[in-house]
Amino acid sequence: MPDSSRPTRFRRLLRPLAQPVTYTRWLRLCVPAGAIALWGVFAPRYLYLIGVLAVPVGLIPAVRVGKGIQAQVLLVPDERGRPDATIAAAPATTWQERWRTVLGLEARLILAAVALTA
């Protein structure tokens, strides 16, 4: 007797491929790939410097605004500019928020580098 739940599992597995947010999430993760590719063309010996430079840049409070706006546009476009948006687009006010921004930048750089080498 065939398993009737099999098509349901298969559809559930493929459902994210039909949703636009899947591709905008990948786009958001791969935005740094352009910077890595350009840096790799012009200064391949010093490719690690892009990761080192992300630390002081991420500590600037206004960088969190840019990351927030980019995330809102790509992930939740209907909430762009609303004060009750699920993704904040405000400057970092604490050191914890600044370091979280640095961590996010570094993670995106690492994922982009992995994607480029794959």
Question: Can you summarize this structure?
Answer:
The protein is mainly alpha-helical and 118 residues long.
Would you mind describing this structure in some detail?
- The protein is flat.
- Helix content is 66%, strand content 0%.
- The protein has helices spanning 6-14, 20-42, 49-58, 63-75, 95-117.
- It contains five helices and no strands.
- It has 118 residues and is mainly alpha-helical.
- It has one domain.
- Strand percent estimate: under 5%
Biggest sheet, in brief?
none
The portion of residues assigned to helices is 55-70%
H/E series, N to C? HHHHH
Morphology = flat
Layout of helices and strands:
Elements: H1 6-14, H2 20-42, H3 49-58, H4 63-75, H5 95-117
